[in-house]
């Protein structure tokens, strides 16, 4: 898939666990884990906004496009 999710990288840079981020963005651990592992097929802008707010980053820090 040409869209790469770098959520794990941003979480490591911010030294935040999946549990902490889940609580901050009000998302279940399973849904956040699916997103973190790159298995998600879509993401709501409101979810992306909440994650960016919690991690103090931009959407481009989390999502990356690499052509096949």
From TrEMBL:
The protein's name: XRE family transcriptional regulator
Lineage start: Bacteria, Pseudomonadati, Bacteroidota, Cytophagia, Cytophagales
Highest taxon listed in the record's lineage: Bacteria
PROSITE patterns from the UniProt entry: HTH_CROC1
Example of a GO MF term: DNA binding
Family annotation (InterPro entries): Cro/C1-type_HTH, Lambda_DNA-bd_dom_sf
Domain HTH cro/C1-type intervals: 7-62
SMART domains named among the record's database cross-references: HTH_XRE
């Amino acid at each position: 898939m040409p869209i790469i999710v770098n959520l794990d990288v941003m979480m490591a840079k911010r030294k935040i666990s999946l549990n902490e981020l889940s609580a901050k963005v009000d998302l279940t651990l399973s849904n956040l884990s699916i997103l973190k592992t790159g298995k998600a097929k879509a993401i709501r802008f409101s979810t992306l906004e909440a994650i960016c707010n919690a991690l103090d980053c931009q959407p481009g820090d989390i999502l990356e496009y690499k052509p096949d």
